[in-house]
């Protein structure tokens, strides 16, 4: 049994959980009162499965709750400490954010944007990105942010799907010291579009751009805009944004989020999970193009009037010390990142983080993929210096905010590396079998959510039917996230990867996460992805892809050691038929391993939608690895 890390922050409010267990609706009703409403709701939850309306009859505005409410006490407080990739910095106060957001709200109005209209945003990680989002929210327009690494074709799909009249972009953005010409990408994406009326262009990199009659420069518009603009009083379920999922398992889905329920969920989870204090400096490394950026960069920290660091560029640019340099420079107290980033940092060795003063840190978090216990321990020891709790937060674009996480701001709970511990209060989670019955402890099954929760998506944009099929058809009145999980003897939840990634070898079901964790626990391994290929006898045999740490080469010995480790830790059944060493794995732009791609290549199937793929070169490498495997298998059998 692994060591249990008992380092809670000492907060312990047992009553809150009790209340949530006895009546989740009235529990969330209380939580919603933490926000500022223009008019109160008549009903906390209207549940017409599978459609939930939270705080029906109440009116609210996200931008009002993010900015207006702080002006009396915090107008001089830093909202964003922005670090440019090239070392520039900007300190933007709550007062400045407020006036910029009101001005841009007026800009949007002057371009004909009205309540309910969609606005597409394609901007790099600059403060103007949250400014535009909050300006949309202020006037009741629905924003749809597209990650600034996406191609023209992906933008075209999304702009067409959301029917945006206005696009806000920049001339360019910096990535690894180079300029990515964003405006050119937009020009290409909308060249045949009939309904895009205006493109607003922020000058960030000052590269040459061509301007058409649709194009307006940010500064020209802002210089003429008034900074008076009251926040629109919107219904609680007014659509705040559409955001497309990362596309790890298939074509991205247009998730639609509302306002009052979503903000309630964020306000509470930010407080419970991050134990946020007025003096904290929060830093979430997620790009705003993903849900983590929407929820825990843009909305949640602002609801709490928190100070945060926002970084423009690549985490390892100009070198592997960049993150630690930022943590030291801004005296960051709470750091929230992803397992994929941590595995990368780990690959560079301990000396780099060890040479920085990280003593300001008090709390660490992770999100996006299962975190391998080995990586968790490294994070705990090398970054947290054995004094910071780590919150492993499980959630999805669809859930809006965290559903499973340790909550140091609420209660003390001993931590186990690799487990998200339990569901947050007010959320009812189970692990069930194919029939929907709870599985016994320590048995793998499907994660489900048995009640609606306030951050829950309203629907999939323009496709209620798909919403019903994807999330609500496997089990009656139960939300199906598509993840595989287990609850241990102590009631701790372990996320074991995507349900459709499960390997079935000789009648055994083996979770990809479990197997990959075992491989990554070898000290020379940085990353790993496993998948199955069909086998006449066993159903499936396992193939493992392994990326080694820097400076490690002797693969012959490693192959043996890794196989042995798997045999010892999991069992002979899980031993890979072949281990293949590659320099990178195919990942989504949000940094997740795209196992469906490995599977498709292995099964000689069409690769499907790869608009969210990070680096095509990884696919080529994997493809040739498979070809080699196939050849050697044929040779052996022939
Ligand atoms: P798509 O739905 O298009 O395939 P995606 O699921 O990768 O994309 P997101 O909504 O960004 O898009 O990711 C949510 C998923 O990420 C979860 O369903 C889960 O598989 C994984 N995940 C997130 N956080 C954790 C965590 N802490 N532990 C394990 N898995 C996690
Ligand atoms: Mg998903």
Give an overview of the whole structure.
This protein is 32% helix and 22% strand. By secondary structure, the chain is α/β, with parallel strands linked by helices. It has a domain at 501-637: GMP Synthetase, Chain A, domain 3. The strands form 9 sheets. It has a 7-stranded mixed beta sheet, with helices on both faces. The chain has a 5-stranded parallel beta sheet with strand order 7-6-8-11-12, sandwiched between helices. Helix 6 (128-139) links the parallel strand 6 and strand 7 (142-145). Helix 19 runs parallel beside helix 20. The model has no long low-confidence stretch (mean pLDDT 92). The chain binds adenosine-5'-triphosphate (ATP) and magnesium ion. The site of adenosine-5'-triphosphate has 27 residues, from strand 20 and strand 25. Residues 72-453 form the AMP-dependent synthetase/ligase domain. Keywords: ATP-binding, Ligase, Nucleotide-binding. GO terms for molecular function: 3-hydroxypropionyl-CoA synthetase activity; acetate-CoA ligase activity; AMP binding; ATP binding. This is Acetate--CoA ligase.
